[in-house]
Write a structure and sequence with these properties.
With 404 residues, the chain is α+β, with helices and mostly antiparallel strands. Helices cover 35% and strands 26% of the residues. The protein has 11 helices and 17 strands. Strand 14 and strand 15 form a beta hairpin. Helix 2 crosses helix 4 and helix 4 runs antiparallel to helix 5. It is elongated, with a radius of gyration of 29 Å. The termini are far apart.
Length: 404
Amino acid sequence: MINNRVKVVVRVRPTNSFAHENIEIYDDNKVVIHSTKHAVGHINNQISDWSFPMDQVFHNTAQETLYNECVSEVVDKALDGYNGTVMAYGQTGAGKTFTITGSTENFQERGVIPRALTHLFQTINSMVEHSVVVRVSYMEIYNEILTDLLATNDNDGRSLIISEDSGVMVVKGLTVRTAHSEEEALNLLFEGETNRVIAEHSLNHNSSRSHCVFTVHIECRSKTQSSSNYKISKLNFVDLAGSERLGKTNSEGLTKREAMYINQSLTFLEQVIIAVADRKREHVPFRQSKLTHVLKDSIGGNCHTVMIANIWGEAAQLEETISTLRFGTRMMCVANEPLQNVHFDPVLLVKEYEQEIKSLKMELAMHDTLANRSNVSYESYTDSQQVDLQLTIKRYIFWFSSRN
């Protein structure tokens, strides 16, 4: 069941060196961290134990289980007109990209996006009474520059503009392509993947050096009902760049510059989350960074949001694990108000009104016939009739005012 707040789940990266002495996972989805730091020769008032209650914790869990328990319902809701967002947060090497996109070499290790596309098109094929159009976009935020990963020509991202339309964030200039099948949607995903910025990192040989947002736009209309309304929604799949400290990785040159931009945007994201969770705050600084601006309707907006906090359960990564879990608990305080996005086709709406007017006129004509009234017209007044009516009204107003 999706609550009206951000759902936060923890996924632990499988490792042979799991820190059992430092990390405990309980059946009630609580993660407890025990620090082994001890002060020598003086009193240490630092906290040595942390407890983080989460919505769910996945340890040594298959991709399929994670998808079925955390993401499947978000996709179903999207087909019913509700926006959805699934984001992966955590340090470099904790398994964010594996969770979101998965492995291309093993079918069972498909990530959230490929599984969502399979789920989406299988459901659409069973919706015989509806016509569903699926469109896909893919963008990257690298060093605070937006890049269109599906653009057919070179684009440095400066032509992409973030705007807001009726509470929904829109990136103007972003390529949006129609996908008629699961295969076409997957091809677009893989096309965008080849254009992402990847670099070797001390914690990961193929590290994503940018934030990426893969969006599925859905438009659903009824085939059996001549209704003017239709549902639209969007599914955001967000792969955030690594959140580790610069001092830990000893990055230099371009990698250091990339890390500075990544940490800055993630810091702004945390500030926004703290501000949204505080009901007394009147202003939330969404425009501080491209990332927070793009995710505005996913954080405290009209969207079903699931955050997957990826942690690396080794003793050497304990500080980053605590940081990720602390971020997750703050995210759980963010309340969302999912709304069904129902739009009206103006052309069909006019036709509906015309048909309704015609039916009402026929009903009135039948009523007049039964009441033995004839020569009654319900057509629109002519210009001369409107002038006569205005004169009659003015004479009545003058007569009424003179009596009082």
